[in-house]
Each structure stands twice: as C-alpha cells, then as structure tokens.
Design a protein that fits this description.
2 copies of one chain form a homodimer. Chain A is of the alpha/beta class. Chain A folds into 2 domains: 104 residues, Alpha-Beta Plaits; 291 residues, Ribulose bisphosphate carboxylase, large subunit, C-terminal domain (TIM Barrel), CATH 3.20.20.110. Chain A contains 18 helices and 15 strands. Chain A has an 8-stranded parallel beta sheet with strand order 7-6-5-15-14-11-9-8, sandwiched between helices. A 5-stranded mixed beta sheet of chain A has the order 2-3-1-4-10. In chain A, strand 2 and strand 3 form a beta hairpin. In chain A, helix 16 packs across helix 18. The radius of gyration of chain A is 23 Å and the shape is elongated. Chains A and B meet through helix 2, helix 3, helix 8, helix 9 and helix 10 of A and helix 2, helix 3, strand 4, helix 8 and helix 9 of B.
C-alpha cells in the first residue's frame, strides 16, 4: 500500500494529537516532498511502497502535515497519540527527533517546538517539587535563589572543595553546585566530598540561621547515580544534579522515578543540538521534554548577559514555557497546557557577576536561580567577599536600590563592581 | 591565579593523555583565543581569574593545545587523564563535548575525534560479544548477516508483527529487528509481541535448520529496559536493541553492565549532532564512545548507497575504527589502540534493497549486518519473496556471481531487481 502524501491542509488537529513544528530546508527536492519524507520516517512510512501496510493502519495512524508556512520553511505535523508510548521519552524522541535528521531528503532540519496532548502529559510525572516545593524547602519566598558553582571546575580536593563551599554559604549565598565535569575523581572522590561538604553545610546553616543548599553532581551510569543519590541522602542532602543531555533521557527518567530529591538539571552538550538555528533541536523543545521528564530546575541561559550564546528573547520564552501553567499559541510557538505538571525553576548561569544582577532580575524575574562561578570566586578579596557582593547586589536590586548606590555602603560589592563592571 | 594561555605547541602528548580534535570557527576573536576558551571550559578554567585556582592544580591538570593547523581551523588538545572519571561516559562527554558548544566565543565547533588513553580504555567494558561472539552465536561464519526491520515501522499488532518476522526468516534472512519507534504500544504490547514473535522464531529455526535472530527494541526508562530484557530472556532471545542517543549514555552503560545479551545499537537523532560538518560531533566520535560503552553492533550508515546522508568514505572510516584492534594516525584521524576492547559489528541500514548488495559488500566487506526494510517488504510478491531475493543476492555476491546472472535462475531476485534496480 502506498501513501501518496501526508499533506492535508484541511486537517484540524484533535485534542489527543501530538504536534511538531520543524524548520525545514529540503535537499534538491520540493519542501512538500521533503515534508512527506519526514512525516513518513517519523511514523508509519518508509522509502518505498510495502505490502505489509494496510488501509486500516493508514486510516488510524497516518500523521497529517497540516501547515506549511508561506516561505516554505516551517511545517507542522499532527501525530495520532498511539504512535507514541506513554511515559517513554526516548521512544517519543526516536520518532519525532530521530532518523529524520540524517535523511538525504533534508539539507537542514530543526525541531522547533512540540505540543504534547493531555494523554501524553498525563503519562509523565513532571517535577516532584517544582517552584513551590523549592520555595518551601529553601525558605526563600520571593527573591531569586543565589548560588555558586565551585571553581576551579575541577582540581580541588575534597577538603578544599568543602572550604570554598563554606565560604560561599557564609558570605550569603543559598546554593553551592558542583560543576559538570566534577563527579568522582582520583583527587576528589564523591563520597568524601559529600562528607566534607555537608559537614560545612551544617556549620554554615547553624552560623547564618539560613537554609543552605548543596547540589552534588551525581552524573554517571544509572545504578552509580542511584548509589550517589543514596550517599547524598545519608548526609542529609535535599538536591541532586544530573547533566541531562550526556546522561540521557532514560537515566533522567529513572532518577525522577527513584530519587526523592530536588532534581537540578545541567545541560552540557545542548549547544551541539541547539546552537545552529537551522538544524537540530531548539532549547525550547529540550526544555519541554525536561519538564515532562521531571527536572525541578533547568539551566536555560542568561538572556544574553553572560558568556553563553543565546538571544534574550529565546531565553525568556523558554522561561515562560517551563514556569507557566499554560502557554498560548504565539508567533512560532505551539500552544501547551501543562495540566498537573508542576512548573520548573529556571537557572541562569555562565559568565554572571554581581553587576549582572539588576538586568538579569529585570529580564528573568524573581523565579530564578542565579548561579555565579568566576563572578563569585574571582572577587579580588576571594570567595566569601564574592558571595557577599552577590547577596548585597541581589538584596539591593530587590529593593530597587541601584548597585552604585548600594556600593557606597557595601565594600564587597564596591570591589566587585570595580573588577567586573555593571552589565 | 590566571592562566595566560593553554597553547603549547611544543607539548608532546603523553601515553596517559586523552586527546580531542575539534574543528573550530571562532566568533569575533582569534582562533587562538577561542581555543583557549575551549580548553578552559572543558577543564579547570572559567571566564575570569579566580583566587581558588592555585599553581599546584595548574601544573597537574592544565590541558595543552598542542596543535593548530595551518588554516587555523583544526585544533588538538591533550588532557591529563585525571580530568576524567574512569568508566563514566556521561562525565567524559560533559567535559570534552559539553558547555563548549554553547559559548559565545565560538561560531561553530565540532568534536571530530577522540583518542582514549589505555587508562580510560581499560576502565570501560566494551562489547560483551563483539564480532567473534556474534559469528559464533549466529553460526554465520563468513558472509554478512542479513536482516530486516519490520515494516510498517509501527502499526502492526503483535500477531501481524510476528507473521511478518516469520516470513522474513522463512525467506532466508538471519535477523529481524524492531524499528526505533516501536516499543510498547497500545496496539502492540512489548510482552505479547515477544511471545508471538519468539514462537515463530522457534518455528522458523526448526523449519530452516538455521539460527534465527530477533532484535527487540527495549528502549525506555532504565528499569523498564531491564524488565524488557528479562522478558526477552524468558522467551530465549539472545539480543536486545537500544536506541543509544535518545536513551543516553547512562542507560546504555547500565544495559551493558546488567544485560547479558548481544547489544544492538540504533542511532536515531545522531543526525542532529553529526549532520553539519562544521558543528556538533562526528559519527566517528560517537561510534568510538559507543564501542567503549559496549555496543556489540552499531548502525553506521550505508556508504552513501541508501537513503541516509553520508559520504562513502566517512562510513568506511567509521567501520574501520569500530572493527579494528588498532588505528594509526592518518589525515584528520587520531591514533587509537583498542587494547582489550572487542570489535563492534557494523550495521548498514536505510534505503537498501537486493540491488544494493554487491556494491555494499565491496565497500563495507563481510563483517557487516545488512538491514533491509522497504527493500524487503516492498517486494512485489511480499515479504517472503523479498527476503529470498536478499539472500539470493547476497549468496551470489559472495560467490562473485553478478545479480543479473543470478536473476536468471532466481525468480524472487529478478522481480526485486525489476522494481528496485541495481545500485
């Protein structure tokens, strides 16, 4: 049985349809033909007519390319929900973001957005804590969470690591995070690092009277991640960090299922997928998958303020998507009702310093974790002063006081601004 | 402490160094400066000087950019092995293929190749079976393994799926593989599919006197994959298939550790990473990681004969890399000694038909699995005839008989060539 075309511009997507939006540059064929190849390869078709495909299957499962924009570049496909296994993120991506990127029929192809229907939304767990749970746990009710990544990214032994963490908390930060290339090293073993760092976390909490958070990077083979989460639990930690792209979706779903901690998602390698605006997969699409799979916090960039490449708009659109209950169709964004899936707390990180805070706050709002690496430990007077400068800047910004004004009475902030400037 | 530069053209990589090769297009800065940012971000550095980085750490762990080609595009970096956690593929990739793709400093960046030192090679398990183990298990000692992917990719119920599988085996194929978007569906549950398909596998083995292989797609959340592997074991299956990019490296390593089956690796989504020659990650680099992590079989393309995009050369280079004991430095390829890691059997799949076989055999050699989807089930007389045509073509090619000659006495092959032609 041969399928002539998947294009059906009169098709109205049903409430149970999964919808994808692709940017498409065909390769020596028409957009329509390339779109047909994409719809086929991501569902029931192949490159030739086959005897095993019957009318019944076609009627039930054939997707519809229901929109091609006037520039012949943006296509939208509606898929019957039964083409996907509920709750299985790897399978869903193998279909709608799988073989199609490698076909001769396309020169460039980018998965820009995914609309998940309620049936699929309901099959995933989403964040265990979400923004509300995190606010409750950290007892920081209004302002952004302020954190640091221990620097150097890798190289400190366990005791030095814990000491830098302590200085950061003592200086006024809420959060300390491992960097993504620090897991369990010859000179800094996971278990010993937990022991030393949580010991000083307890000390910092006692001394400051504030809740202090450590986000240890448990990224590894799945059972090793579960072991490490158990160690975190033994020391009274509330968070785990997983590098979600290099770990992968199967492991991420496992951690969501089995680890009752706040799940902080780092996104190293995403740029290999997201950077080229004409190919790969948008960070928006990745972020939606991460929300469904259940990350509580997700790195989304710095709205073009830091060292990472992205437009401010892109970053704010992603924040809106992961923090809202419902997003309506606008520009090239598909509608999404998140139903019972909790909102994810956005994380800004990469090249930030105290001088970035007012602009960042204005662009990204209060519901955000601001993470500072070099912008904390690079303070002329060291980590504790760097942490204090960040807290001073954030408190000032929350009260609408300018950093210049605040720096008159906050020595640490004054030194930081002298080194880093104001964004 | 500030690091002035990571460039050290006099540096001679040591036997314990991990070496990466990147294609680099800097963004509004010099190649040297962008290379420095890459070396920093993938190891011990950040965007500013920091007080917590001391001379001892720099001396021990600072990587060296030891080569920049004359066009200022290809750079090579040597990393101290202690920057990586042995046996932790997600962590290694988070370092050398992580944040760097998203930095403002680069416009395009591609991880082209990775040289793994013995210390890291020894920390991974590699394939459990490898080519030799697969040859022994399948009792196919010399010729390529011949297989099909059940088509339509998705849509058949369990019984129809099993029937198509049976026809394929009965017609002469060794292998039947699930397609990547078929996992456990509302109309085709994993367990029932196993029951029906293995029942007919046993029947086909009895009738043909040949070993018949079924490769079920277990791709899902990690524990669900383990459940499914157990079901495969209960029915006497010897293989599992995992879609390695959408599953991710943590889950892949878990399956290698805990499932004593031949591990067939599909690679859906790889094109999002590999397609753009100036960005992302090469299939060669992915294939090396997959070999280390322990896939026994890996899809690498069809040497430009099928529907997927790649040059024949690229494909053959990857095959050489995953099937050899040792690869010497040549052109842009880094040297690699695989020590005790077994070779991986290459899989060619995507748009192949009986007429493709002689050319494919010539290009890719005997140590290969040839997989036919539409090229089998699209036969004018159906699946069994398609399977027979494939076997006839392969047997002829192995004996040096031309397909035209063979078609005179093989009716199924004649019909196939009439429909598909000769590649």
């Amino acid at each position: 049985m041969k399928i002539k075309t998947y294009i059906d511009k009169g098709y109205k997507p049903g409430r149970d349809d999964l919808i994808t939006e692709y940017y498409l540059e065909p390769n020596r064929i028409s957009t329509e033909k390339a779109a047909d190849h994409i719809a086929a390869e991501s569902s029931i078709g192949t490159w030739t007519d086959i005897g095993t495909l019957d009318q019944r299957i076609i009627k039930r499962l054939k997707p519809s390319i229901f929109d091609i924009d006037k520039n012949n570049r943006i296509i939208k496909i509606a898929y019957h929900h039964e083409l996907f296994e509920p709750g299985n993120m790897p399978e869903i991506l193998s279909s709608i973001a799988g073989n199609i990127f490698g076909m001769k029929s396309v020169r460039n192809l980018r998965l820009m957005d995914i609309h998940f229907p309620k049936r699929i939304i309901d099959s995933f767990k989403g964040p265990r804590y979400g923004i509300e749970g995190i606010r409750k746990l950290t007892k920081v009710s209004r302002r952004p969470l302020l954190g640091t990544i221990i620097k150097p990214k890798i190289g400190l032994d366990e005791k030095s690591h814990a000491r830098v963490a302590y200085e950061s908390w003592a200086g006024g930060l809420d959060v300390v995070k491992d960097d993504e290339n620090l897991s369990s090293m010859s000179f800094n073993s996971f278990k010993k690092r937990m022991k030393e760092t949580f010991r000083l976390r307890d000390k910092a909490e006692k001394e400051t009277g504030e809740k202090k958070i450590y986000m240890p990077n448990i990224t590894a083979e799945t059972f090793e991640m579960l072991n490490r989460a158990k160690i975190v639990d033994d020391f009274g930690g509330e968070y785990v960090m997983v590098d979600i792209i290099t770990t992968g979706w199967a492991g991420l779903q496992t951690i969501r299922d089995r680890v009752k901690k706040v799940l902080h998602a780092h996104r190293a390698m995403h740029g290999a997928l997201t950077r080229n605006p004409r190919h790969g997969m948008s960070m928006l699409a990745i972020a939606k998958c991460a929300r469904l799979a259940g990350t509580d916090q997700l790195h989304i960039g710095t709205a073009s303020i830091g060292k990472m490449n992205e437009t401010g708009e892109e970053c704010m659109d992603i924040e809106k998507e992961i923090e809202s209950k419902r997003v309506f169709e606008h520009q090239n964004f598909l509608a999404q009702n998140w139903f019972d899936i909790k909102p994810v707390l956005a994380v800004a990180s990469g090249g930030l310093h105290p001088g970035s805070i007012p602009k960042l706050l204005k662009k990204m709002g209060n519901d955000i974790v601001m993470q500072f690496g070099g912008g904390c430990h690079g303070h002329p007077d060291g980590t504790r002063a760097g942490a204090s400068a960040i807290r001073q800047a954030a408190d000032a910004a929350m009260q609408g006081v300018s950093l210049k004004e605040q720096a008159k009475k906050s020595q640490e902030l004054a030194s930081a601004l002298k080194k880093f400037g104001i964004a």
